[in-house]
Amino acid sequence: MKKLGYDPLSSYVEPPETKRSRPDAAELYPFTLITGSKTAVYHHSQQRNYTWLREYVPEPIAEINEKTAARLGIGEGVRVVIEGLRGEATLKARLTTGILEDVISVTHGWEGDANINYLTDDRQLDPVAAMPAFKTILCNIRRAEV
């Protein structure tokens, strides 16, 4: 890595969009969105057109900690809008204790108004891997209008 001009030892660098690096944005978007979660039945964004696979994961979901959801008045299966600095996506809430409070997890690969890529920033890339920050997106979540 040193020969390529990088620090040869790993070190932590605060991502460009977190509560610490963007306290101004965190006031409007107090939650952390992690994207790219995968489901066992789909391969990236493929196979969502197979009816028998859709029986297992029929629609896009946003996983939310039960305590966070209760605080926001969001119930299981309720349609929610996740909004961030660049856009928004609409999904169904799945409540869980398997995720930290104030973190929202969304699988990738859905189209239309559930396309979570509307919230990601492909201009802020890791200098070594050239990957966008898919796990540190500031967001807000609310019940979708009926």
Topology of helices and strands:
Elements: H1 23-28, E1 31-37, H2 51-54, E2 61-65, H3 66-72, E3 79-84, E4 88-96, E5 103-107, E6 137-143
Structure overview:
- The chain is of the alpha/beta class.
- The protein has a single domain (26-143), classed as Barwin-like endoglucanases, CATH 2.40.40.
- It contains three helices and six strands.
- It has a six-stranded mixed β-barrel.
- The mean pLDDT is 85.
Quick take:
With 146 residues, this protein is of the alpha/beta class.
Provide key terms for this protein.
single chain; 146 residues; alpha/beta; Barwin-like endoglucanases; six-stranded mixed β-barrel; 3 helices; 12% helix; 27% strand
Portion in helices: 10-25%
- How many DSSP H or I helices? 3
Strand order of the largest sheet: 1-5-2-4-3-6
**Distance between the ends:** 53 Å
Briefly, what CATH class? Answer: Mainly Beta
The succession of helices and strands, N to C, reads: HEHEHEEEE
Total number of strands: 6
Low-confidence stretches: none
Q: What's the structural domain tally?
A: 1
- From the coordinates shown, what is the CATH architecture? Beta Barrel
Largest sheet: 6 strands, mixed, barrel
Helix/strand class = alpha/beta
Average of pLDDT: 85
Strand content: 25-35%
Tell me the CATH topology. Answer: Barwin-like endoglucanases
Radius of gyration: 17 Å
Shape: globular
